[in-house]
Amino acid sequence: MRHCSVQVRGLLTRDELDRYNALMEVGSFLESQNRYDLAYPVQKEVDLLIQPAIERLKDKGRERDRATREYLDAKRLNEEANQEEE
After folding, report:
1. Would you list the domain boundaries of the chain?
2. Which of 5, 11, 49, 50 could form a disulfide with 56 if both were Cys (CB 3.0 to 4.6 A apart)?
3. Which residues contact 38 (CB under 8 A, 6 or more apart)?
């Protein structure tokens, strides 16, 4: 079973995380029994389960990029204003 990243796991809700852990446990058991044919649908379910958290991570990245852009714009304007004063 493939785990999702720590960043994605950190953005799962409590219910999503509980379901994720249960599915991973089931999938690991199936793999230990060499039942990869059954572990595959469990992995697909995990992949679907983590999609909302992936979107939340993308949103956080977009927000961080926006804040950085605003900061750099304000810094540039401030520097331009200081140059005009000199």
Report:
1. 6-85
2. 11
3. 30
Amino acid, res. 42: V
From CA 53, how far away is CA 9, in angstroms rounded?
Answer: 7
pTM of the model: 0.78
49 near 17, Cβ under 8 Å?
no
Measured CA to CA, the distance from residue 18 to residue 10 in angstroms comes to: 12
Give the tens place of pLDDT for each residue, 1-60: 999 999 999 999 999 999 999 999 999 999 999 999 999 999 999 999 999 999 999 999
Q: Tell me which amino acid residue 62 is.
A: R
Q: What 3-state DSSP class applies to 31?
A: helix
Reported confidence tier of residue 72, pLDDT bands at 50, 70, 90 = very high
Reduced DSSP (H G I as helix, E B as strand, rest coil) percent helix, strand, coil of the chain, to 5: 85, 0, 15
